[in-house]
């Protein structure tokens, strides 16, 4: 239990036919890009809110506060418009959290939980509940800034593109899991019809015969102009599909050049048991994918040295929490997260950027034009607000 708890503590700290053509790019580029600070908003809320989603115009934001289990909706100024609490055993409760809240248009909010997909108005009244395609027995959840389901549009119809939570009557210790796995579901928000997409393609490391935990393959994804961009957790690739609500046809695989990467290796499948879902915040992961103004933004974490992580976990299990956390922080400094910028059309690598100074490097959020980062929390002072920096990607 101590080792499992240590893994959860780590999460809080960083707070088609044939084989596809694989695109590989070099890191050295002539285009110089940087994040330019334009503005900030302060959310006056005592707790630990995390930035979840925005509408395309950046005029509404959704946050989730884990201590109070409240969903918070604010204007772009940071003014809180409403807070929602949907816990307990009531008809409009979403149950165990599976995703962070999603802003839909200006006046609706979507929350995915074990009980289904729930659509609320801004005041918290339930407008619709969409059942999952199958009942879920258990799940794990990782909270990362801006990593949640996304609203996509096809022929004037709104869909929710979300992480698939189906078990498909198997688990990660069986070959059947890797043969039948689909990363994503697309949900028609009018009819409730659901289709799943995104298998482990030929050439994926998840077809190497090993077993993997949920955080190893937790997807990051984006859709733009009929293209689906999908990465399976810690696999350093983005699989690109021609995409519609009825079909996904693999186009190409983009191999990512991630600095200081510690590749995930998996375990013997006998170590995994049915009904057990686990996550490890020290493993490599693609955190976010956004497409904006002709550029693909891919937020990554290169992972921590697994040998030294064993030592940190050993210290923790022996009751030496401070020493274990100190070692972990040193490991984190050696493996800084970053953001890769690719050209949407040519898939050329344009830049590899560090997170802006004094920001939380656990992830980011983007709308049509701007990029949002949470301020890194103060080390020694309890703050009663959350600051969000509004930035723009510009050429030097």
Question: If you had to describe this structure to a student in words, what would you say it looks like?
Answer:
It is a single chain. The strands form 6 sheets. The protein has a 5-stranded mixed beta sheet, with no helix packed on it. Strands 2-25-24-23 form a 4-stranded antiparallel beta sheet, with no helix packed on it. Strands 3-4-5-6 form a 4-stranded antiparallel beta sheet, with no helix packed on it. It is mainly beta. 12% of the residues lie in helices and 38% in strands. The longest helix is centred in the last third of the chain and has 14 residues, at 321-334. The chain has helices spanning 2-13, 175-180, 214-217, 306-317, 321-334; strands spanning 21-24, 33-43, 49-54, 60-65, 70-75, 80-85, 102-104, 108-113, 116-121, 126-130, 150-154, 157-163, 184-188, 194-197, 219-224, 227-232, 237-244, 247-255, 285-292, 295-301, 338-343, 349-354, 365-366, 371-374, 386-395.
